[in-house]
Specification:
Blueprint (H helix, E strand, L loop, with lengths): L1 H6 L3 H18 L4 E3 L2 H11 L3 H9 L4 H16 L4 E3 L20 E3 L2 E3 L1 H4 L11 H4 L10 H7 L3 E5 L5 H9 L4 E5 L3 H14 L6 E4 L2 E2 L4 E7 L6 E2 L13 E8 L1 H7 L4 E6 L5 H6 L2 H7 L2 E5 L4 H14 L4 E7 L9 E7 L17
Parallel strand pairs: 5-6, 5-12, 6-7, 8-11, 12-13
Antiparallel strand pairs: 1-2, 3-4, 9-10, 9-11, 13-15, 14-15
């Protein structure tokens, strides 16, 4: 029964769940609830097998207060929530949830801005959801100060996990990158992104879309295609919602180091949101990170290993070279849309905040 409500794509079921969300918000100031989240269970399993104090200290070391607050509240919710149904809003100001941006009728108010489907469906042509990490926070780039923005000017960018090129268009329209190399493993997403770009953004000429993946070596790898944002390397169907059509396939993968050398990049920025493949992708970018010290926005929420081990990995690649910030760039779910933003220490840069809320942004 739980799986039926969780995975059903029925119009009536989705409307019913969204109406219950609305009632929860009005009655208890809880904006969201979820059913049997596998990621939370994975976090719990991971933490049981490790020395929590050690991995926690390695994660929070040299972070700012807001980063520590994001981490502490996230872990507290993971530890305290019910195994079946849990309320997971990290902040009382978080009023927009994932299903709402897919069609909930009630407009929510956030910072005196009414957001409804009639607003966000036109943000990116052919793309019917308003992805806050993309369109509001630009994967963290909107939190950078002038020093950091000047640092990435006229340099190349890696957009790993480009989906339908929404992130690439945002990066091209708002920042002065020389070239944006967008990597997407899903052929459906890849073709749709090219079509959107061709039909709506003929004035953009610095995006290069590439239908291959990013990993720690060059090879042909198994993958799951779903025509959605959750297509991923590997064939672990547990990570893909049952209501999304998916099929197995093969895809070529390369490394950022080899791609960068082959194409003579001057790398200024790396964005990664590749459904749990980030750790291996960073292993394949060691030389580029050491050489260019690019500003990076790395999603760390897809697995507990990413959450706890990506920051120490980057510290081992470039010891003492980066300031790190953990920011939650969307208001729905518990650990989802959490990014590690990496800024070279030599910039002496200060990260900004777009909201008064202590967690969100």
């Amino acid at each position: 029964m739980i799986d039926f409500f969780r995975y059903s794509n029925s119009f009536l079921v989705r409307k019913s769940i969204n109406f219950i969300r609305f009632l929860f918000l009005k009655a208890f100031n809880i904006y969201d609830f979820n059913f049997k989240n596998e990621t939370v269970l994975l976090f719990r399993k991971y933490l049981k097998k490790r020395n929590f104090n050690l991995i926690y200290i390695n994660l929070i070391k040299n972070l700012d207060d807001k980063s520590n607050l994001v981490i502490d509240l996230t872990l507290q919710r993971i530890n305290d929530t019910s195994k079946i149904i849990y309320a997971n809003n990290l902040s009382k100001n978080e009023l927009i949830d994932g299903l709402n941006v897919k069609g909930f009728d009630f407009p929510f108010i956030k910072n005196n801005c009414s957001i409804s489907i009639n607003y966000y469906k036109d943000i990116y042509p052919g793309y019917k959801t308003y992805e806050i990490p993309v369109f509001k926070f630009h994967h963290g780039l909107r939190l950078l100060d002038k020093k950091s923005l000047e640092y990435i000017k006229d340099k190349d960018a890696i957009d790993a996990g480009s989906f339908e090129l929404d992130s690439a268009v945002v990066l091209s329209n708002n920042y002065n990158f020389k070239k944006i190399f967008s990597f997407e493993i899903d052929k459906i997403n890849f073709k749709k992104g090219l079509k959107i770009l061709e039909e709506n953004y003929e004035f953009i000429n610095n995006i290069k879309s590439i239908n291959i993946g990013i990993s720690n070596e060059e090879k042909i790898e198994d993958t799951i295609f779903s025509g959605s944002s959750v297509s991923q390397l590997g064939v672990n169907k547990k990570n893909i919602p049952n209501y999304i059509n998916h099929k197995k396939g093969k895809v070529k993968v390369t490394t950022i180091d080899k791609f960068s050398e082959k194409n003579n990049l001057n790398l200024g920025y790396i964005k990664m949101d590749i459904e749990g493949a980030e750790y291996n992708a960073l292993l394949g970018a060691k030389e580029s990170i050491k050489k260019f010290l690019p500003i990076m926005s790395i999603s760390i929420y897809h697995s507990p290993r990413d959450y706890f081990e990506i920051k120490p990995l980057i510290e081992s690649i470039a010891p003492g070279e980066y300031d790190f910030y953990v920011r939650k760039l969307a208001p729905w779910y518990n650990q989802s849309e959490t990014y590690l933003i990496c800024i070279p220490k030599k910039l002496n840069s200060k990260i900004l905040s777009l909201d008064d809320d202590p967690i969100y942004g």
